[in-house]
Design goal:
Layout lengths: L4 E3 L2 E3 L3 E3 L8 H10 L3 E3 L3 E2 H17 L20 H15 L4 E7 L5 H10 L4 E6 L10 H18 L4 E5 L6 H10 L4 E4 L7 E3 L4 E3 L11 H10 L6 E5 L5 H10 L3 E4 L1 H6 L3 H16 L19 H17 L7
Parallel strand pairs: 3-4, 3-13, 4-6, 5-6, 6-7, 7-8, 8-9, 9-12, 12-13
Antiparallel strand pairs: 1-2, 10-11
Helix pairs in contact: 1-3, 3-4, 4-5, 7-8, 8-10
Organism: Mycolicibacterium vanbaalenii (strain DSM 7251 / JCM 13017 / BCRC 16820 / KCTC 9966 / NRRL B-24157 / PYR-1)
Protein name: Dihydroorotate dehydrogenase
Pfam families: DHO_dh
Length: about 325
């Protein structure tokens, strides 16, 4: 049985990808994920805030050294308080890429164009097979227009694409006024892949302490529907690879995404909830289903339930919407 697939122009042994999470913060963690069978690993993210902090600290040290020996400007001694987060990240990436035979993808979590070119190039030089741009931007500024938000994504992509030769994927939020158009524009701008979707981590309110309570909730299977909607609509309509993420709890969600047209399916929540070895359970479930259905390879059924090319997409979704309401009005609310 052939589970192989292509993502970002890379040949993967199967379509299950471990997305960025604490599981990939160590070389041992990356190795455990690879041993469990995943097709690729996205390293935990290097955050824009870390890069900014290091740049500020380096600038202060350089300024402080202007009255010292010239040689002191070429290095930063240990114990000076410099944030070595980005350097640790690059070291981990280099060691992880050497430790496993599957692709290791570097991840940058950004909200502004910034000075990403140098870091993206360093990620490439350390052995990353690709770069994932995790654009996490909640546009709470009432003066920031939708077009400005879209342009910021394109600007971040342009900075990184100019700096590297390895593939670049963009991880998007689902909350664009015209998601398909944004996908098309990123595709035309050179994105090698789109990851659908990022999850905004909405805060809660603690009514006893009267405080905002930020926290992370692992995704559940019901959340598969939003990314699945757009995967089925974009399959075959853009050249960029499509990675589905969010809501993968078991083999069923993995299979649904592939039927919708995803090139790969990413998960963090299922692996965090059940452990890295759960990857084998997901892949075994996929193999068993393929055997029952008579499919010998992923390409035999990928995109089977995508929206057909030539369909009026808006009319198609409207029909689904009306059908769902009629079903609900008849008292059939589906499984609880």
């Amino acid at each position: 049985m052939d589970l192989s697939t292509r993502y970002l122009g890379l040949n993967l042994r199967n379509p299950l990808v471990a997305s960025a999470s604490p599981l990939s913060k160590t070389v041992d963690g990356v190795r455990r994920l690879a041993d469990a069978g995943v097709g690729a690993v996205v390293l935990y993210s290097l955050f824009e805030e870390q890069v900014r902090r290091e740049a500020r600290q380096n600038a202060r040290l350089a300024e402080a050294g202007t009255d010292s020996f010239a040689e002191s400007l070429s290095y930063f001694p240990e114990g000076t308080g410099v944030d070595h987060g980005p350097r640790r990240y690059l070291s981990l990436l280099e060691r992880a890429a050497e430790a496993v035979a599957i692709p290791v993808i570097g991840s940058i979590n950004a909200s502004t164009p910034g000075s990403w070119a140098g870091y993206a190039r360093s990620i490439q030089d350390c052995g990353a097979a690709a770069v994932e741009l995790n654009v996490y931007l909640l546009p709470g500024d009432a003066h920031l227009s939708g077009r400005d938000v879209e342009q910021r994504h394109l600007d971040i992509l342009a900075r990184v694409k100019d700096a590297v030769t390895i593939p670049v994927a963009v991880k998007l939020s689902p909350y664009f006024s015209a998601t398909a158009d944004m996908a098309r524009r990123l595709d035309l701008a050179g994105a090698d892949g789109l990851v659908l979707f990022n999850r905004f981590l909405q805060p809660d309110i603690d009514t006893e302490t009267l405080a905002v309570a930020p926290g992370i909730l692992l995704s559940r299977a019901a959340e598969v529907r939003l990314p699945l909607t757009w995967i089925t609509l974009l399959h075959g309509r853009i050249g960029a690879s499509l990675a589905a993420t969010t809501g993968v709890e078991g083999p069923v969600e993995l299979i649904k995404y592939l039927l919708g047209g995803a090139d790969v399916v990413m998960t963090a929540s299922a692996l965090l909830r059940h452990g890295p070895d759960y990857a084998a359970v997901l892949l075994d479930g996929l193999r068993h289903w393929m055997s029952r259905k008579g499919y010998a390879a992923i390409n035999d059924f990928r995109g089977l339930l995508a929206v057909p090319i030539g369909t009026d997409e808006a009319a198609h979704e409207r029909v689904n919407y009306v059908s769902a309401l009629r079903q609900a009005n008849s008292g059939d609310y589906g499984p609880w």
